[in-house]
Amino acid sequence: MGLRATLTLEVSPAGYYAWRERPESARATSNSALLADIRQVYRESGERYGSPRIHAVLRTQGRGASRGRIERLMRRHGIRAIMAPPRRVRTTDSRHNLPIAPNLIARDFTAAAPNRVWLADITYIPTAEGWLYLAAVMDLFSRKIVGWAMRHHMQVELVSSALSMAIRQQRPGAGLIHHSDRAVQYASHEYRAALAATGITASMSRKADCYDNAPMESFFHTLKTELIHHRQYQTRPEAQRDIFAFIEGFYNRTRLHSAIGHIAPIQMELKAA
After folding, report:
1. CB distance 219 to 227 below 8 Å
2. Whole-model pTM?
3. How high is the pLDDT of residue 187?
4. Do 74 and 80 touch, CB atoms closer than 8 A?
5. Mind spelling out the 3-state secondary structure of 118-163?
6. Mean pLDDT of successive 10-residue segments in the chain (273 residues)?
7. Sheet holding 130-139: strands in order across?
8. What residue ranges of the chain are covered by domains with CATH 3.30.420.10?
9. How far out from the chain centre does Cα 226 lie?
10. Which SUPFAM superfamilies does the UniProt entry name for this protein (predicted)?
């Protein structure tokens, strides 16, 4: 607004200049400071956090701003969590005559302590060299990825390596349930023998029902929307390095998880300890 506009609006020049020189309101000052904090958390999350997680982080830092206020500021300034449309490739081959374990979970995605229930699944990552396959094992209590392996194939060795890592790191006691889909890799004699040798009880989803393993599906969705779909990998080793950093450096240690009260998986595991 200039001086000519002030005359049109019947505002005196003196009043206009007084308005221009007036100090910023307390609310505007507070919003500016809050916006700077929002941008800081947003950058530190790799632009992956939306308003719920940014609100949770700021709350731990002693900021009392409501989630609605944070959401309004983010919308006003165009701050949005990165997202990408899903792409699907078939990773489950359940057309086999191998034994199928009963579904012991029945969509009850709760666990009283670490190493009571593990979930397992396979996903894929595109590279210029071809697909890279990721097998992961999640502890249901903490949502921590306790075992993982990456290969250029989906053979039993892929999932066995992820399981071996989980057993080696977690050293589970008796009574652990291992839940997966009905893929031939998990139903194989080799994999079932590895479970039995450690005293782990197998559980499997119903046929072609991804919701029976929803937390693992959620992890893969997070991995892809927050990382994979924003990269163009030329080689499998390049993708492996990125995924390693995401799982061990961000997801397990830093990323706030809504299912466990907006804390990181390792924090949840430490609380139980």
Report:
1. no
2. 0.70
3. 95
4. yes
5. EEEEEEEEEECCEEEEEEEEEECCCCCEEEEEEECCCCHHHHHHHH
6. 50 63 69 80 78 80 81 82 56 67 94 97 94 97 98 96 97 95 94 96 85 93 92 95 97 93 94 86
7. 145-151, 130-139, 117-127, 177-180, 201-204
8. 117-271
9. 8
10. Ribonuclease H-like
